[in-house]
Amino acid sequence: MIIAVDGPAGSGKGTISEYLAMKFDLLYLDTGLLYRALAKTVIRENVDPKNFQAVTNIAHTLTFQDVQDPNLRGEDIAAVASQIAVIAEARKVMDEFQRDFCRSVKLPYKGAILDGRDIGTVICPEATCKLFITARPEIRNQRRMLETQGTDGASPEALSEIARKMVERDNRDSTRQIAPLTAAPDAFIIDTSGLTIEQACTKAAEYVTQYCVA
Ligand code: C5P
Fold first, then answer.
1. 43: CA distance to ligand 1 center in Å?
2. Which CATH superfamily is domain 2-198 in?
3. Nearest residue CA, atom 5 of ligand 1?
4. Distance (Å, rounded) from C-alpha 93 to C-alpha 59?
Protein backbone atom coordinates (compact mmCIF):
# COMPACT_ATOMS: atom_id res chain seq x y z
CA MET A 1 0.00 0.00 0.00
CA ILE A 2 1.27 3.47 -0.91
CA ILE A 3 -0.30 6.56 0.63
CA ALA A 4 0.34 9.93 -1.02
CA VAL A 5 -0.14 13.02 1.14
CA ASP A 6 0.16 16.54 -0.25
CA GLY A 7 -0.51 20.02 1.05
CA PRO A 8 0.99 23.41 1.84
CA ALA A 9 3.25 24.33 4.77
CA GLY A 10 1.53 24.30 8.13
CA SER A 11 -1.48 22.29 6.93
CA GLY A 12 -0.74 19.43 9.35
CA LYS A 13 0.25 16.94 6.65
CA GLY A 14 3.44 15.90 8.46
CA THR A 15 1.65 15.16 11.75
CA ILE A 16 -1.10 13.26 9.96
CA SER A 17 1.42 11.28 7.89
CA GLU A 18 3.41 10.28 10.97
CA TYR A 19 0.21 9.15 12.65
CA LEU A 20 -0.89 7.10 9.63
CA ALA A 21 2.60 5.57 9.31
CA MET A 22 2.39 4.32 12.91
CA LYS A 23 -1.19 3.16 12.69
CA PHE A 24 -0.87 1.26 9.42
CA ASP A 25 2.79 0.08 9.74
CA LEU A 26 4.10 2.15 6.87
CA LEU A 27 7.59 3.42 6.10
CA TYR A 28 7.44 7.23 6.13
CA LEU A 29 9.29 9.79 4.02
CA ASP A 30 8.84 13.53 4.53
CA THR A 31 9.91 14.56 1.02
CA GLY A 32 10.23 18.23 2.03
CA LEU A 33 13.33 17.15 3.95
CA LEU A 34 14.91 16.05 0.68
CA TYR A 35 14.55 19.53 -0.78
CA ARG A 36 15.67 21.05 2.52
CA ALA A 37 18.77 18.83 2.63
CA LEU A 38 19.61 19.91 -0.91
CA ALA A 39 19.07 23.56 0.08
CA LYS A 40 21.33 23.20 3.12
CA THR A 41 24.21 21.98 0.96
CA VAL A 42 23.56 24.70 -1.63
CA ILE A 43 23.79 27.33 1.14
CA ARG A 44 26.86 25.75 2.75
CA GLU A 45 28.72 25.55 -0.55
CA ASN A 46 27.70 29.06 -1.52
CA VAL A 47 26.05 27.93 -4.73
CA ASP A 48 23.64 30.26 -6.51
CA PRO A 49 20.16 28.63 -6.21
CA LYS A 50 19.57 29.67 -9.84
CA ASN A 51 22.62 27.73 -11.04
CA PHE A 52 20.65 24.76 -12.41
CA GLN A 53 23.66 22.63 -13.20
CA ALA A 54 25.45 23.09 -9.87
CA VAL A 55 22.24 22.44 -7.88
CA THR A 56 21.50 19.31 -9.92
CA ASN A 57 25.06 18.05 -9.37
CA ILE A 58 24.56 18.40 -5.62
CA ALA A 59 21.19 16.62 -5.87
CA HIS A 60 23.02 13.57 -7.24
CA THR A 61 25.15 13.38 -4.08
CA LEU A 62 22.24 13.38 -1.57
CA THR A 63 21.99 10.37 0.70
CA PHE A 64 19.42 9.15 3.17
CA GLN A 65 21.71 10.33 5.96
CA ASP A 66 21.49 13.96 4.70
CA VAL A 67 17.70 13.76 4.95
CA GLN A 68 17.96 12.70 8.59
CA ASP A 69 19.84 15.87 9.57
CA PRO A 70 17.90 17.30 12.58
CA ASN A 71 18.70 20.92 11.58
CA LEU A 72 16.64 21.28 8.42
CA ARG A 73 13.49 22.81 9.88
CA GLY A 74 14.00 26.60 9.71
CA GLU A 75 12.12 28.86 7.28
CA ASP A 76 15.43 30.15 5.80
CA ILE A 77 16.32 26.70 4.52
CA ALA A 78 12.72 26.22 3.35
CA ALA A 79 12.89 29.44 1.31
CA VAL A 80 15.96 28.19 -0.58
CA ALA A 81 14.38 24.71 -0.88
CA SER A 82 11.42 26.27 -2.65
CA GLN A 83 13.70 28.25 -5.01
CA ILE A 84 15.60 25.16 -6.09
CA ALA A 85 12.42 23.08 -6.26
CA VAL A 86 11.61 24.78 -9.58
CA ILE A 87 14.63 23.16 -11.28
CA ALA A 88 13.37 20.35 -13.52
CA GLU A 89 16.64 18.41 -13.66
CA ALA A 90 17.11 18.52 -9.88
CA ARG A 91 13.50 17.37 -9.41
CA LYS A 92 14.15 14.36 -11.66
CA VAL A 93 16.95 13.29 -9.31
CA MET A 94 14.67 13.79 -6.29
CA ASP A 95 11.88 11.85 -8.04
CA GLU A 96 14.17 8.84 -8.42
CA PHE A 97 15.19 9.06 -4.76
CA GLN A 98 11.51 8.96 -3.75
CA ARG A 99 10.65 6.09 -6.09
CA ASP A 100 13.66 4.12 -4.78
CA PHE A 101 12.31 4.73 -1.29
CA CYS A 102 8.93 3.24 -2.27
CA ARG A 103 10.69 0.21 -3.80
CA SER A 104 12.77 -0.31 -0.65
CA VAL A 105 9.79 -1.24 1.55
CA LYS A 106 10.22 -4.61 3.25
CA LEU A 107 8.37 -6.46 5.98
CA PRO A 108 7.45 -5.71 8.75
CA TYR A 109 6.31 -2.57 6.88
CA LYS A 110 3.14 -2.97 4.88
CA GLY A 111 3.84 -0.13 2.53
CA ALA A 112 5.00 3.47 2.38
CA ILE A 113 3.59 6.91 3.05
CA LEU A 114 5.16 10.00 1.48
CA ASP A 115 4.19 13.60 2.08
CA GLY A 116 5.07 16.61 -0.03
CA ARG A 117 3.67 18.73 -2.83
CA ASP A 118 3.55 16.44 -5.87
CA ILE A 119 3.25 12.94 -4.41
CA GLY A 120 -0.26 12.19 -5.65
CA THR A 121 0.24 13.95 -8.97
CA VAL A 122 3.82 13.08 -10.04
CA ILE A 123 5.69 10.71 -7.71
CA CYS A 124 2.99 8.12 -6.96
CA PRO A 125 0.08 8.72 -9.37
CA GLU A 126 -0.92 5.08 -8.78
CA ALA A 127 -0.98 5.42 -4.97
CA THR A 128 -3.54 3.26 -3.16
CA CYS A 129 -4.81 6.31 -1.38
CA LYS A 130 -4.33 10.07 -1.83
CA LEU A 131 -4.91 12.76 0.76
CA PHE A 132 -4.68 16.51 0.29
CA ILE A 133 -4.35 18.35 3.59
CA THR A 134 -5.05 22.04 3.73
CA ALA A 135 -5.97 24.85 6.14
CA ARG A 136 -6.74 28.55 5.91
CA PRO A 137 -3.60 30.68 5.39
CA GLU A 138 -3.87 32.52 8.72
CA ILE A 139 -4.13 29.22 10.61
CA ARG A 140 -1.15 27.71 8.77
CA ASN A 141 0.83 30.83 9.46
CA GLN A 142 0.06 30.71 13.15
CA ARG A 143 1.06 27.05 13.40
CA ARG A 144 4.30 27.55 11.51
CA MET A 145 5.25 30.52 13.67
CA LEU A 146 4.68 28.50 16.84
CA GLU A 147 6.70 25.64 15.38
CA THR A 148 9.64 27.74 14.22
CA GLN A 149 9.90 29.97 17.30
CA GLY A 150 12.59 27.69 18.66
CA THR A 151 14.69 27.55 15.50
CA ASP A 152 14.42 31.05 14.04
CA GLY A 153 14.20 33.26 17.13
CA ALA A 154 11.03 34.63 18.70
CA SER A 155 11.09 38.43 18.24
CA PRO A 156 7.95 39.89 16.61
CA GLU A 157 10.08 40.99 13.64
CA ALA A 158 11.48 37.50 13.22
CA LEU A 159 7.99 36.00 13.39
CA SER A 160 6.51 38.36 10.84
CA GLU A 161 9.48 37.66 8.57
CA ILE A 162 8.76 33.93 8.89
CA ALA A 163 5.13 34.57 7.94
CA ARG A 164 6.17 36.64 4.93
CA LYS A 165 8.59 33.96 3.72
CA MET A 166 5.96 31.27 4.11
CA VAL A 167 3.42 33.16 1.98
CA GLU A 168 6.09 33.76 -0.67
CA ARG A 169 7.05 30.07 -0.61
CA ASP A 170 3.43 28.92 -0.88
CA ASN A 171 2.90 31.18 -3.89
CA ARG A 172 6.04 29.91 -5.57
CA ASP A 173 5.15 26.25 -4.88
CA SER A 174 1.59 26.67 -6.19
CA THR A 175 2.39 28.63 -9.32
CA ARG A 176 5.58 26.95 -10.57
CA GLN A 177 5.47 25.26 -13.98
CA ILE A 178 6.81 21.87 -12.86
CA ALA A 179 4.98 19.73 -10.29
CA PRO A 180 3.09 22.60 -8.63
CA LEU A 181 1.33 22.09 -5.32
CA THR A 182 -2.12 20.89 -6.29
CA ALA A 183 -4.61 18.25 -5.21
CA ALA A 184 -4.80 15.18 -7.45
CA PRO A 185 -8.35 14.87 -8.84
CA ASP A 186 -8.81 11.64 -6.87
CA ALA A 187 -7.45 12.96 -3.56
CA PHE A 188 -9.55 13.12 -0.39
CA ILE A 189 -9.34 16.70 0.85
CA ILE A 190 -9.15 17.45 4.57
CA ASP A 191 -9.33 21.06 5.75
CA THR A 192 -7.74 21.03 9.20
CA SER A 193 -8.55 24.71 10.03
CA GLY A 194 -11.21 23.92 12.61
CA LEU A 195 -9.88 20.54 13.71
CA THR A 196 -7.65 19.48 16.58
CA ILE A 197 -4.66 17.30 15.71
CA GLU A 198 -6.54 14.27 17.04
CA GLN A 199 -9.64 15.03 14.95
CA ALA A 200 -7.58 15.55 11.79
CA CYS A 201 -5.65 12.30 12.32
CA THR A 202 -8.83 10.36 13.04
CA LYS A 203 -10.51 11.69 9.90
CA ALA A 204 -7.52 10.69 7.76
CA ALA A 205 -7.31 7.24 9.39
CA GLU A 206 -11.02 6.60 8.85
CA TYR A 207 -10.63 7.38 5.17
CA VAL A 208 -7.60 5.09 4.83
CA THR A 209 -9.38 2.27 6.68
CA GLN A 210 -12.45 2.61 4.49
CA TYR A 211 -10.84 3.04 1.07
CA CYS A 212 -7.25 1.79 1.21
CA VAL A 213 -6.89 -1.13 3.57
CA ALA A 214 -7.80 -4.34 1.78
O1 C5P B 1 7.36 20.23 3.13
P2 C5P B 1 8.38 21.32 3.41
O3 C5P B 1 7.73 22.60 3.82
O4 C5P B 1 9.45 20.88 4.32
O5 C5P B 1 9.08 21.56 1.98
C6 C5P B 1 10.07 22.54 1.74
C7 C5P B 1 10.00 22.97 0.28
O8 C5P B 1 10.42 21.88 -0.56
C9 C5P B 1 8.59 23.30 -0.22
O10 C5P B 1 8.24 24.66 0.02
C11 C5P B 1 8.69 23.00 -1.71
O12 C5P B 1 9.21 24.07 -2.44
C13 C5P B 1 9.70 21.86 -1.78
N14 C5P B 1 9.04 20.57 -1.98
C15 C5P B 1 8.67 20.22 -3.26
N16 C5P B 1 8.14 18.99 -3.49
C17 C5P B 1 7.93 18.12 -2.48
C18 C5P B 1 8.28 18.47 -1.17
C19 C5P B 1 8.83 19.73 -0.93
O20 C5P B 1 8.81 21.00 -4.19
N21 C5P B 1 7.44 16.92 -2.77
1. 16
2. P-loop containing nucleotide triphosphate hydrolases (3.40.50.300)
3. 32
4. 6
Contact predicate 49/80, CB 8 Å: yes
Atom 3 (ligand 1) nearest CA:
9
187: closest CA among 207, 167, 173?
207
Q: How far is the CA of 82 from the centre of ligand 1 (A)?
A: 6
Say how far apart CA 60 and CA 94 lie, in whole Å. 8
Q: How far apart are CA 178 and CA 160, in angstroms?
A: 29
Statement: residue 152 has pLDDT above 70: no
Per-residue exposure over 113-141, b if at least 16 CB sit within 10 Å of its own CB, e if not:
bbbbbbbbbbbbeebebbbbbbbeeebbb
Q: Would you list the domain boundaries of the chain?
A: 2-198
pLDDT digits (tens, 9 = 90+) for 103-113: 999 999 999 99
**Rounded Cα–Cα distance for residues 53 and 31 (Å):** 21
